[in-house]
Amino acid sequence: MNIQLHTGLTTEDIQWIVQSAKQQPEIEQLVLFGSRAKGCHRKGSDVDLAIKGEEVAYDSVTRLAEQLNEVIPLPYMFDVLDYGSLAEPALKAHIDRVGIVLYSRESPR
Q: Which residues are in the Polymerase beta nucleotidyltransferase domain (predicted)?
């Protein structure tokens, strides 16, 4: 799969996103989900990201969201959530089913 064509994100976009996640050592994995992961995004679609890690907390989510939405120069809105704190089984199942791992501490892209 050509991840750029499938997600509508450029290689540079993905590099910015991954570098932002790498700045937080508690983030063990970063997963793209939603319309961009399913390949049905439209112009202006947000970028849905789930972060995973035993030490991930609310501050981790807000720091990454602020970095992506306010600091780096990308033309998207980012919705970041903590996979471990999700209470909705259907959302977890969606992420597990269609999610694309953009970064894993063991095997970064």
A: 17-106
Domain count, the chain: 1
pLDDT means over runs of 10, the chain (109 residues): 82 95 97 95 93 96 97 94 97 97 77
Domain extent, residue 32, equals: 3-104
Contact 74, 68 (CB under 8 A): yes
Q: Residue 71 has which token pair?
A: 């600091």
Token pair of 42, please? 């439209």
CA dist 24 and 38 (Å) reads 27
Torsion of CA 62, 65, 69, 75, to 10 degrees: -170
Q: How many CB atoms lie within 10 A of CB 50?
A: 26
CATH number at residue 43: 3.30.460.10
pLDDT in tens, 22-51: 999 999 999 999 999 999 998 889 999 999
